[in-house]
Amino acid sequence: MFMIFGIPGPLLFGQLLLGLINGAFYALLSLGLAVIFGLLNIVNFAHGALFMMGAFCAWMLLEYLGIGYWWSLLLAPIIIGAFGIVLEKVLISRLYKLDHLYGLLLTFGLAMVIEGLFRNQYGSSGLPYRIPPSLQGATDLGFMFMPNYRGWVVVAAAIVCFVTWAVIERTRLGAMLRAATENAPLVQSFGVNVPRMVTLTYGAGVGLAAFAGVLAAPIYSVNPNMGSNFIIVVFAVVVIGGMGSILGSILTGFGLGIVEGLTKVFYPQASSTVIFVVMAIVLLLRPNGLFGRV
Fold it and tell me: How many CB atoms lie within 10 A of CB 280?
């Protein structure tokens, strides 16, 4: 068995893979938060609950309708995104002109209600969701065996993150979205329906959370608490990357996942706090985050 820095190679690479997997979920969830905050100025504390709903949606599609994993990757983000649109229309749209605190309190309350409803119906023990047959097994990389599904999660998350960044930063639609956040009346004077654009943007951010939930379902047990286990760390990732920064959320999510994985190898006691230590250091040196606007 070969060693790296005195650590068995398979152990080190195994923890790096786990870090990449966690980083994939951090990136996807923080990306959705960054889209919603950067374009709508809403601190969406319900994001973790919507991530959980994505996982439960995949489980329900399989359990009640016999719809498998691949279709769930498409249908769950659409279904939960539509639910997010209803939330935005009925509740959140009333808070755009108020202080950020009101949006945070509303979405925090929504998260508690949603999690409570699912906990009352399904309990807290967790429900299994099997890995699709085409992604079962593992691949021998020579230095470690990589589970196929976990490799797929990292690739899928990276592709979705890149496409989202490209749409927002490199397309005409993204330009209109960014312009609407700066001067909505001016953009509306050109015939753009800004309220509809805002609503669809919120739905898209929620859809990203649901997509992450479907990816997470075969790895973590599908349970009402799975969103709350992620959301605090994800908010730290968003703060470190820079509130509202799309690229910052993606790079910071993957990067901090790797940092967390390496910490579990070299200093396991600090693995649960290392991200918050990094956040404190970044806020002291660069209050707007690594990629935030100065």
Answer: 13
